[in-house]
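Structure ticket #2291
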Amino acid sequence: MPTVSEISSRYIDDVAALDPVRGERWGVASDSTRLTDYSPDGAAALADLLRRTIREVNAATPTDNWERLGQGFLADWAGGELGVLEAGERERMLSNIVGAPASTRSVFDLMEKSTPEAWEHIAARLAAVQASMAGYRASLELGLANGRPAARRQALVVADQCATWAGSGTDAGWFGTLVAGSEGIVDGPLRTKLDAAAGQAAAAYADLATWLRTTYAPRAAESDASGDERYRVWAEYLLGTDLDIDEAYAWGWEELARLETQKDAECERILPGQGFDAVRELLINDPNRSIHGVDAYREWLQYVTDEAIDGLRGVEFDIPDSIARCEVRIPPGGSAAAA
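Resolution: structure written out below.
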């Protein structure tokens, strides 16, 4: 009988093999020429893995307290993701932050780019984009057939994102810019292969953008709201607990009232008697309170990040040297406006 630690380790490796994009984000070594299968078959394979993991980890006998804690965490985590899959949520997963198009594009940011061999892997992965996006579209089509549409606003935002990364036809788009970074490292047949693969990937994103606008959006839901049933499934996955929805909702309103009170106090401190709208206008337009230019913004955000880590390290958390530096970078156009 495998231990909880062995089951957990195998789970990480198996997920990375099924979902190379997630594995790359986790830093788990897997086949760097592949992409995630976002099709209904890919979702079914992941669900099978989660069911098997839950059975194995629940049957294991923890050898110490750490394994006991790990057993509970893995069972909750795998069960939460399985609940999301069984509820059909992957069939309407449209997000400009964690959706398949955003996750697939960003995986190339994490890949090694310093050798010709590394660019061979990038070329192979670029060539896999078309099939990966086709599988993703098949899942969305299944969602429409099953009466599980995402919100129209989500469809249009992701369509705009895909179109931005695809380029307009007169520019290289994000994928063309990516392979341009191989200049001086590769040439000849490999560079030709990279250019062709980048063009195919851009075309796949352009096609997906068009389909989302012209076919999916007209059939999408008007409301962004999820409702209690869907919210509970996602809450269990993300929080690892069976949430009391009514209690959480009431707490949310209490927190909003508390924050509004704090906001009013801060506004009074900045512009006494003027109110929020006037303070907002001042903070947006006052040149003494503005940061001008991308480089200046990145430098300021790096300062804020460094200050936060320095203030927390050794006080609230023990932060290892290997992760004590969080490098701030500016994402490419089309990325979600999130820090």
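Closing remark: Residues 188-216 form the longest helix (29 residues).
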